[in-house]
Structure formats: structure tokens, C-alpha cells
Amino acid sequence: MTLPTIWIATTRGPVEVVSITEEDPDIRSVLCLSDSFQELPISPLYDAFVRRPTGLIEQFTGHPSYRIDLSGPITQGHSWQLGLTVTHLFHAEPDKSEAVSPQALMWTTGKVTPKGIVQPVGEIGKKWYTTRAALYKKPRFPDPVLLIAHPENIAEIQAIEQDNPSQLAITWVPVTSIIDLAAYFNLTTGIERTAPVVERRQPVKRVIAAVAVGLACMAVGSHLAIGFVAPLTRLDAEGRYRELFMELREMRQDGNWLDVNGAFFFEKYLRHRANGLGDDVHIEIRLIPGQDAPCAVPLTATITTNTLPDWINNGCQLQLTLGNRSDQPIGVWAAFYSSQDNAAPNMILQNHAALPPKQSVTLPSFTMDSTMKSASKTLLLMASMRPDSELLPWFNALLSTPRPAAQMMRRIEKSGTGFRFAQGSATKN
Fold first, then answer.
1. How would residue 296 be classed by pLDDT, with cut points 50, 70 and 90?
2. Does residue 48 lie in a domain region?
3. 365 pLDDT exceeds 70?
């Protein structure tokens, strides 16, 4: 069996998963250096991660003991757990590896809880720079680098790439649970085998039978749900919104009952996410005191409606502060422009901010000079937790008209992206 290329990020450099072997159930699981007798010190932690009752992997695969060979040592921490979970899932379904490009590289980091929840880990910057150094030594870059991590850690790497871009073709795969991971790669996480049950009295047998039937239905339902959602989830995670809209339209028009209803609920999910992201952005506009009388007193307004405060027309210096009230990182595009009659809008401010959870950023100040008093003002914001290469043309199209086009705003919101706008009336001379 050929596994996809899987790297586990460490601060000393990435470690590749070389091979995985099922062992006798009576012996414990181990991590070893490739093609050696050297067992790594964290093997007891790995065994506890695999085997019931503490472990998670046996619940997915039904097997309690493995040997995994690694290209280098892992000595501490828990960030190896996500990468080894990816390894076990592909090992359990070897045919799914064929769907991953042979030129692709899966870069992983993350802690996994006993309930399958993925948690963020530390020292991301150091891990990413050592990975880039390792990749630059290769004769050719992987295409793509599938970066699999918690959304918080992905936001950290996106910030690094924005400030110091690499030449890598990166596909962002944010995951908050093993279910997210399985849905993206169309993998199964159902429990395949269970421990035998000792039969006692007839009523107990009936209860056990009923539970078994229920579990089987749940397993089949979960498998169908994952298989159904996987293509939509993948397009959404990669920011391929045009293809996503086409897929949803075909499901509604030509699909069976499950397709039609599934498309309906997935669209409802995207709209719900869009509304949530819009509400998660805190917008504050501040007047910076100056020498002129209209600007002498500092003023601050929180934008909660579609209306800007009247004092933005005073010809003063202003500043925007954007805050993320959610528990996940989001990217925000902000634009502030003026427009008069049917003339092309005059762009005053256009900026992007990557906002970690519960944090805010203050954008560069700008001045509303006296010539702008007779022009209307518009503030637009777009908030996303997905790649935005397809979103930006839509956002820029909105900036080209005095008033945001309703059709374009609906398209952005249909993609699961938050959108806010506020306008201020022109001052009559």
C-alpha cells in the first residue's frame, strides 16, 4: 500500500511518515526511526493514543497495535497526533490514497482529543520556516502543499505567507475535528469492529440487538452524510465558489430527493455562516483630534447599522478599528470610498487584516478633506474563514459602483462569507 506523502511539523524540521504496519494485538504500538531497531521515547504516548480505552485510533480502525516508521525523531509534545491520525485513516482505506496527487504533500500539525476534536498548537512560525527551508532544498516543490491544521494555526501561517511569501502552491485545509478531515478527503471514521458481548438473559440480548441495529444505522447514516458532504466541503474549504454554486445548482435541478434536500441545507449552512461572520466583526470609526474647530473633539462611533455618523463629513482625520469577536481566525477586507453623482468612486482606504480570535487591529488613518464633504461615503467589509482568491474580484466589483450592487452582495453571502456595509449622506453646501 502506498501512503500519501505526510509530513509532521516539528521545530527542528519536518518528519516524514515512512511506513505503517499492523502488529499483533497483544503487543503495544511503537514509533521507530525508519528501518532501525530504535524505538522513539514517545512510543508509550502513541500506544495510549491508539489503544482502547484511552486511545482514539482503535475506535476508527478496529485494530489496537501498529508500528510506524518515521524519517526523524519526535521527542515531545502532542502536535504529532493530527499527522498520525491522517496516516491511520489513509491506511484504513488505501484506495482513497489514489485520489491524492502523487506530487502533493500533506503538512500536518495539531493535537487531537479523545473525542476527535482538533486543537491548535504552538511554535507555528518556527515549524513553518524549518519546513520551507527543507522544501527549498528539494529539486522541485510539491504541488500542492496540503496544509492541514486548526484554523488558528492556519491563520498564523497565512500571516507569515502574506508578509514573507514563498513560492509554494498551498491548499489550506482547516480542520476543527476528525470529521472535518474525513469529509475533506472522503474518508470514513466509523467504528468498524466492536468487542464481543457476553450473552446472558434474553432481555439483555434484545437490548444489545436493538443497540447494535441503532449503531449500524448511525454508522451507515454517518458514512452517507460524509460521502454526500465531502465534495461540497472540499470546494468550500478551497474557496472554489463558482464550482460550488454549479454543484449546488445541479443537485437542486437534476438530483434525487437526498440531493435536493442536501443542497438546501448546505446553502442554509453557508448563509448562517455568512451572517455569523458578519456579526463577529466589530467595526469602530474614530475621529482623531486636530487643530481645526470641527476636529478638536475626539469622537468614536461603533458601526452597528448601515449608517455612518454625520461627523465623518467634517474634513477630519479618521481611523478604523476592526475586531474579531469570534473564537476562530478570520480575514477581513475593508474599503472606504466616496462618490458623487454617477462619477466613479474615489477610493480613500482599502486594506486587509488577518484577525486572530478575540483580537482587533487598527488600520492606517485617512483624511476626509473639505472637497469630499459633498460626496456620499461608503464603508464595505468582507469577512471570511476560507481562501479569498475568488472572492476578491467580487469585492472589487462592489467598489466600482457608488452603491453596492445587491446581486453581488448576495453572491458573496451565498459563499458563506460575511458582508457589512454602511453609508453616510453627502453634506449640502
1. confident
2. yes
3. yes
In a domain, 239, yes or no: no
Q: For residues 212 and 421, what is the distance between their CA atoms, to the nearest angstrom? A: 53
Hunting for cell 472637497 — which residue is that? 371
In terms of average pLDDT, the best of 120-129, 341-350, 383-392 is 120-129
How many CA atoms are closer than 13 Å to the CA of 24, on its beta-carbon side?
Answer: 2
The Cα–Cα gap between 63 and 409 comes to 50
Number of domains in the chain: 2
Domain that holds residue 65: 6-185
Select from 152, 185, 218 the last residue of a domain.
Answer: 185
Distance CA 91, CA 83 (A): 12
pLDDT in tens, 180-219: 888 888 887 653 333 333 333 344 444 444 444 454 444 4
Q: Is 341 within the bounds of a domain?
A: yes
Residues 164 and 301 in one domain: no
The helix-helix angle for 178-185 and 202-237 (nearest 10°) equals 60
Enter the C-alpha cell of residue 354: 488577518
- Across 321-344, average pLDDT: 87
pLDDT score of 369: 67
CB 289 within 8 A of CB 296: yes
Question: In 207-223, which positions are buried (b, 16+ CB within 10 angstroms) versus exposed (e)?
Answer: eeeeeeeeeeeeeeebe
The reply to whether 10 falls in a domain is yes
Q: Domain of 172: which CATH number?
A: 3.30.230
- Percent of the chain at pLDDT > 70 equals 87
pLDDT at 394 over 70: yes
What CATH number should be reported for the domain holding residue 342? Answer: 2.60.40
Q: How confident is the model at residue 226 (pLDDT cuts 50, 70, 90)?
A: very low
Write down the pTM of the prediction.
0.49
* 372: nearest Cα among 302, 425, 319: 425
Q: Name 311's Cβ contacts closer than 8 Å, sequence gap at least 6.
A: 287, 294, 299
Question: For 76-201, where are the alpha helices, taking DSSP H only?
Answer: 80-92, 124-136, 151-163, 178-185
Would residue 123 be called left, alpha or beta, if left means φ above 0 and alpha means ψ between -120 and 50 degrees? Answer: left
CA distances from 192 to 62, 259, 281 (A): 6, 27, 43
